[in-house]
Design goal:
Length: 213
């Protein structure tokens, strides 16, 4: 495995940075979409709730690879060409945002109804009550499960390998095919993923204990 790492360090490093870049972009936009659709799910407006429910059910129940392939193969046929990296990142964003939306929604619903009623009775609008009273309490509840979603997002970024996204798994496939060192190659890739996920996993455990205290 050491020889594989030494001989193909530049390829591994390139895939490592592409995996980080894809994960960060998908994390940023999936958080925005997820929180946005979670707020729509609990909104007083029935139409908004229906739209959010449709979005979440679609992207939560279609496999990530299928969503990615739609953007990589179907969208270019009817609209514009999408690179493998972009298709994988978009697919990962939409897929993850649906799970984040459900996580945030459950956190909001776990806050007692009296909190909203109390905020409204004190003269706050629905938006102000949600922003200053409900969401701060809900976020403390959903941080641990959100951490799990972030870790899953990093691991799911390997979908880029199927669409030539030049991530870690794509580079590993190329190296394994050219060197015939399949086992050592994928063991090396596993180490790179551990470098990304283990620190995040331990940090989320620490944060969970801190919030519980």
């Amino acid at each position: 495995m050491i020889n594989i790492l030494v001989n193909h360090w530049s390829e591994f490093l390139s895939g490592f940075w592409n995996t980080i870049l894809c994960s960060l972009i998908a994390l940023f936009f999936s958080l925005i979409l997820g929180v946005g659709f979670a707020l729509l799910e609990v909104a007083p407006n029935k139409f908004a709730r229906v739209i959010a429910h449709i979005y979440i059910e679609i992207f939560r129940n279609i496999p990530l690879l299928v969503i990615t392939m739609i953007f990589y193969l179907v969208v270019p046929q009817i609209w514009f060409k999408v690179s493998g990296f972009a298709a994988g990142t978009i697919g990962l964003t939409l897929y993850t945002s649906a799970f984040i939306a459900e996580t945030v929604r459950s956190g909001i619903n776990s806050v007692g109804d009296g909190q909203m009623e109390g905020a409204r009775s004190n003269g706050m609008t629905y938006t102000q009550a949600m922003r200053y009273v409900i969401l701060p309490q809900a976020l403390k509840i959903v941080i641990p499960p959100l951490g799990n979603q972030f870790i899953n997002l990093i691991k799911n970024s390997s979908v880029l390998a199927f669409v030539a996204g030049f991530d870690l798994m794509y580079q590993a496939d190329v190296i394994a095919f050219s060197s015939f060192e399949t086992i050592n190659t994928y063991m090396a890739v596993g180490l790179f993923y551990l470098v990304l996920t283990l620190p995040l996993s331990y940090y989320m455990r620490h944060l969970e204990k801190k919030l519980a205290a």
